[in-house]
Predict the structure of Catechol 2,3-dioxygenase-like lactoylglutathione lyase family enzyme.
Amino acid sequence: MTDQYASVRYLVDDVQSAIDFYTTHLGFTLRTDAAPAFADVTRGSLRLLLSGPASSGARATPEDAAAAGHNRIHLVLDDLDAEIARLGDAGISFRSDLVTGPGGRQILLADPAGNLVELFEPA
């Protein structure tokens, strides 16, 4: 049986930097490395397609939509405070303050290309 993934494509300037970021800091596993054009990493059932400037995915993107967007992947955590401390100790800076709402708490960070990642702890 083939593993089933939900895939998201992120356009990145530097595929190797993106691989390092996701595997070192966010617990992703490298699945395919075709750097500098492309790589994909997985975490659970999420497959993140990292497309560099030479990849077909990046080349198919209209020029006016090439910048990192306001969409983000959403990673659910059991202990957000511990994750914030761990990432802070690793020199990762956050793009938002910690926000608390009725569903839980969240904070945003960005990968080396500026793509957003939401770390979320349910209430």
In short: The domain at 6-122 is CATH 3.10.180.10 (2,3-Dihydroxybiphenyl 1,2-Dioxygenase; domain 1). Strands lie at 6-11, 29-34, 38-43, 46-51, 72-76, 99-101, 104-110, 116-122. The chain is about 20% helix and 35% strand.
